[in-house]
């Protein structure tokens, strides 16, 4: 079939089964938008900023497991989207981001709205393309979707000059991909897997270290089964929250900088780390030389470059976690759960000694209470997104997650402004769940224009602002490590968040008491339109426990015991 | 600090636009160092071969090879242990220098005079990079006006 480049983009999206595209038009991408206007196969959601379009596509992808798609124009449209690309790259989120480019004849002339987009995106995408001929488009788009979603997933950027979108060429999407240089390792080496299982059977204090790769490869069911069959306790990374349910006896909460005392102590005392889809991020390991010092390491990851990058793996297994864990399950009868009873006991004692907790306050709402409360009231009915800061860590600590893909947050890049647009993406992927975004008074202002999108598109995200009048996380570091010099983190001057939401046609609540909070949340759920719940919380609360950056996991700053 | 060693890495890539910048961006973006880089198409194929001389600890070199391999257009990455390595250098001397001496020296380093003009002579040598280095030391006394090195090319034995 002979069609133009713009039509090819539409046909490819349809062929890929895309049902939602997030984007923002402009000169260089107009031919494609004209075709979007003419079709009825997928929905286009007009965000009010390109960064938000990419974050929404990320949220959509993380909640649904499908490839997220965003469409933007050249120049400023593209540069606005870069933060989203970088965010998706760091968290291995499969995206295809399509941008317009100035016509081929103008490339390199500093034309209006020209920027070297592929030059910029090279370092923050899994792969990228500048398409110089419409005849290449079917192959490029097919490759883009395949590369984004296979192996270690990631964002792929396709930059299309305006004249190429007008060019007519043959479109055949049934072509076979011929990517001889790209062959992800899916199956783990059986000999290595066997050796790893023998090591587990021999170990005395083994520990599962569960990472975000489990969620990406949809391996949570298999992992749950393996954990239960072996009776080996497990810690989760921030990105893996929800792999095991919060009430699972074998789950010891999150580890790392703001992980629980028990999780970090277990990691320090274990004799065998079983890392599944985890990449030994520095926020997890603390001081590398002290991390799991006396332990052997089994490391399962689809990305060979992740293995032994930071911590030497004694049993490296390159493969898709789902496949590898399935094979591990087949060999799991040699592992005897009884053997680890005293190890599990030791860990429970750590937990009793310093549980994840906070001190209640009679005058002011504690931020952690809000998160626990939402957990009690909405629990599994909600998908939870966050922005970046203290509220994000408290959410990871205190929300009772019960399933994978329930928790959506910017882990690797730590992007303030991620939460609200991502939550819109989550809502469009999972309309039957309530979409809650925990945010801070700093973060919410970074993409609050999305109120308009949420109102227009009927994406009733409930934004719960844990308002401490501070850039709280930075303030915490200033308090602890900079002698309380709170340089440029005081946010006492604030908008009226209630009016802000109302100005866009949303709903707003200002909350000072627990009763008001319950009422506001109930009302927001019932009214089912985008909401800001501005909760006045204790200003000086710190996220505890904490491993100071570069410190070792077993040397935590703990919640101070309260004097009676 | 782990010991840093000189390494030679060959990379076979698909000949396509911007593949070279993908490689060099990877080095600069991750703070790896490139001592020299040569690249040319492999005859009768759609591939090019890059020879990269770099340095780093074992861990760094392992990351370099793995990260290179992750790039989509990269077909193969070899980190050479046992290899034949050659480099070429072109040197321009004033015509007033002792041509016989220079010519004899060149021969010792697998080279010769390649051009003689009114004011300058140009010589080439092609030898192991270490020996090219030696040559360049030795010829200093003949006041070379310009030196061009090609960077190493290498083949596994
Ligand atoms: C785009 C961006 N800019 C700056 C930072 C650095 N940063 C990390 S946390 C934080 C404070 C966040 O404040 P707020 O959103 O109010 O949340 P809180 O910590 O108070 O819960 C800042 C500035 C960041 N992560 N992202």
Q: If you had to describe this structure to a student in words, what would you say it looks like?
A:
The complex is a heterodimer of chains A (564) and B (157). Chain A is an alpha/beta fold and 564 residues long. In chain A, 37% of the residues lie in helices and 17% in strands. In chain A, the strands form four sheets. Chain A has a six-stranded parallel sheet with strand order 3-2-4-5-7-6, sandwiched between helices. In chain A, strand 15, helix 16 (390-398) and strand 16 (407-408) form a beta-alpha-beta unit. The longest helix of chain A has 15 residues, at 50-64. The termini of chain A are far apart. Chain B has 157 residues and is α+β, with helices and mostly antiparallel strands. Chain B has four helices and eight strands, in the order E-H-E-E-H-E-E-H-E-E-H-E. The interface between A and B is medium-sized, with 18 and 19 residues.
Q: What profile does the largest beta sheet of chain B have?
A: 4 strands, antiparallel
Helix content of chain A: 25-40%
Number of helices of chain A: 21
Name the strands of the widest sheet of chain B in spatial order: 2-3-1-4
Q: Largest interface, and how many residues on either side?
A: A-B, 18 and 19 residues
**Number of DSSP-assigned strands of chain B:** 8
What is the topology?
The complex is a heterodimer of chains A (564) and B (157).
Chain A: E1 2-4, H1 5-15, E2 20-23, H2 30-38, E3 43-46, H3 50-64, E4 68-72, H4 76-90, E5 95-101, H5 117-121, E6 127-130, H6 137-149, E7 155-161, H7 162-166, E8 168-170, H8 190-202, E9 206-210, H9 213-216, H10 220-230, E10 234-236, E11 251-254, H11 261-269, E12 272-276, H12 282-285, E13 296-301, E14 315-318, H13 321-330, H14 341-353, H15 367-378, E15 382-386, H16 390-398, E16 407-408, H17 419-429, E17 434-440, H18 450-456, E18 462-467, H19 472-481, H20 497-503, E19 507-511, H21 514-527, E20 531-536
Parallel strand pairs in A: 2-3, 2-4, 4-5, 5-7, 6-7, 9-10, 9-12, 10-11, 12-13, 13-14, 15-16, 15-17, 17-18, 18-20, 19-20
Antiparallel strand pairs in A: 1-8
Chain B: E1 5-14, H1 19-29, E2 33-41, E3 47-56, H2 58-70, E4 74-79, E5 83-94, H3 99-108, E6 111-116, E7 120-127, H4 129-138, E8 146-156
Bound molecules: thiamine diphosphate.
Thiamine diphosphate binds at residues 387-391, 414-417, 440-443, 466, 468, 470-474 of chain A.
């Amino acid at each position: 079939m002979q069609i133009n480049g713009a039509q090819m983009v539409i046909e490819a999206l349809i062929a890929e089964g895309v049902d939602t595209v997030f984007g923002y038009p402009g000169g260089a991408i107009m031919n494609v938008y004209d075709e979007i206007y003419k079709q009825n196969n997928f929905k286009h959601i007009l965000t009010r900023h390109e960064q938000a379009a990419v974050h929404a596509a990320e949220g959509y992808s993380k909640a649904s497991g499908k490839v997220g798609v965003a469409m933007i124009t050249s120049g400023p449209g593209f540069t606005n989207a870069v933060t989203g690309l970088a965010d998706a790259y760091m968290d291995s989120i499969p995206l295809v981001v399509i941008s317009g480019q100035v016509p081929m004849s103008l490339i390199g002339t500093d034309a209006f709205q020209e920027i070297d987009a592929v030059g910029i995106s090279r370092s923050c995408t899994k792969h990228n393309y500048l398409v110089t001929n419409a005849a290449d488009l079917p192959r490029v788009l097919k490759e883009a979707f395949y590369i984004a979603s296979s192996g270690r997933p990631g964002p792929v950027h396709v930059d299309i000059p305006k004249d190429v979108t007008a060019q007519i060429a043959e479109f055949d999407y049934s072509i076979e991909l011929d990517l001889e240089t790209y062959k992800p390792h899916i199956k783990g080496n059986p000999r290595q897997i066997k050796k790893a299982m023998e090591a587990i059977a021999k170990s005395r204090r083994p520990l599962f270290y569960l990472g975000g790769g489990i969620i990406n490869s949809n391996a949570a069911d298999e992992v749950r089964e393996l954990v239960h069959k072996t009776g080996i306790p497990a810690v989760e990374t921030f990105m893996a929250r929800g792999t095991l349910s919060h009430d699972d006896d074998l789950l010891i909460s999150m580890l790392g900088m703001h992980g629980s005392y028990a999780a970090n102590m277990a990691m320090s005392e274990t004799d065998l780390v079983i890392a599944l889809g985890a990449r030994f991020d520095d926020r997890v390991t603390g001081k590398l030389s002290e991390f799991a010092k006396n332990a052997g390491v089994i490391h399962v990851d689809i990305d060979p470059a992740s293995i032994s990058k930071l911590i030497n793996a004694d049993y490296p297994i390159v493969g898709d976690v789902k496949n590898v864990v399935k094979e591990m399950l087949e060999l799991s009868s040699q592992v005897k759960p009884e053997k680890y009873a005293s190890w599990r006991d030791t860990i429970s004692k750590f937990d009793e000694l310093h549980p994840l907790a906070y001190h209640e306050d009679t005058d002011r709402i504690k931020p952690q209470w809000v998160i626990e409360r939402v957990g009690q009231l909405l629990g599994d009915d909600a998908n939870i997104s966050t922005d970046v800061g203290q509220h994000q860590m408290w959410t990871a600590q205190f929300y009772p997650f019960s399933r994978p893909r329930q928790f959506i947050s910017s882990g690797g890049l730590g992007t303030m402004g991620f939460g609200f647009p991502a939550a819109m993406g989550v809502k469009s992927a999972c309309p039957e769940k309530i979409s809650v975004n925990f945010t801070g008074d700093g973060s919410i202002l970074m993409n609050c224009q999305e109120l308009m999108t949420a109102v227009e598109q009927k994406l009733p995200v409930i934004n719960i602002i844990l308002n401490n009048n501070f850039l709280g996380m930075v303030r915490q570091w200033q308090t602890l490590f900079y002698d309380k010099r709170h340089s440029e983190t005081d946010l006492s001057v604030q908008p009226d968040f209630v009016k802000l939401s109302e100005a866009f046609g949303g709903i707003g609540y200002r909350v000072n008491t627990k009763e008001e909070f319950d009422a506001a949340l109930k009302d927001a759920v019932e009214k089912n339109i985008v909401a800001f719940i501005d909760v006045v919380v204790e200003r000086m609360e710190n996220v505890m426990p904490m491993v100071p950056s570069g410190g070792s996991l077993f040397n935590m700053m703990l919640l101070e015991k309260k004097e009676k | 600090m782990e010991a840093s060693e000189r390494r030679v890495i060959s990379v076979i890539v698909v000949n396509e636009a911007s593949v070279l910048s993908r490689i060099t961006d990877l080095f600069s973006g991750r703070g790896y160092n490139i001592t020299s880089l040569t690249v040319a198409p492999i005859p009768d194929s759609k591939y090019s071969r890059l020879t990269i001389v770099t340095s780093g600890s074992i861990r760094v070199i392992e990351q370099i090879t793995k990260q290179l391999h992750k790039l989509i257009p990269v077909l193969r990455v070899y980190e050479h242990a046992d290899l034949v390595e050659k480099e070429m250098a072109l040197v321009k001397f004033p015509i007033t220098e002792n041509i016989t001496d220079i010519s004899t020296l060149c021969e010792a380093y697998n080279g010769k005079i390649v051009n003689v003009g009114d004011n300058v002579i140009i010589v080439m040598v092609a030898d192991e990079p270490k020996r090219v280095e030696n040559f360049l030391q030795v010829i200093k006394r003949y006041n070379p006006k310009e030196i061009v090195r090609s960077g190493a090319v290498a083949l596994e034995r």
